Amino acid sequence: QVQLVESGGGLVQPGGSLRLSCAASGIIFNLYGMGWYRQAPGEKRELVATITSGGTTEYLDLVKGRFTISRDNGKNTVYLQMNSLKPEDTAVYYCNARRTVPRGTREYWGEGTQVTVSS
Questions:
Q1: 63, 90, 100, 106: which could join 67 in a potential S-S bond, CB 3.0 to 4.6 Å?
Q2: Is there a contact between 94 and 36 (Cβ–Cβ < 8 Å)?
Q3: Distance CA 50, CA 60 (A)
Q4: Inter-residue contact 111 to 20 (CB < 8 Å)
């Protein structure tokens, strides 16, 4: 059974920092690209950052220079370091694991963790 379990969300003041973690089980972690998505109330889910199995990263323009995605294959965990947080970063953040295989794509989601940026 595949599980992606996010942690590290919470309430933080503008300008503050949080580090999200996503612990994966039930998959061969180092074969999967990992990503963080977010969804604010009334908005569509959007891609925040991705990291390939080889460590290549990509970011939503809005978070470039503030957020950093990383992975620890030994711990089956992906992280999202979020600095200089803004109220518009408030959302539920979801962890995603994706791998393309000959028969298609395998994709898994976590349950999400709430991030609220407010004074």
A1: 63
A2: yes
A3: 9
A4: no
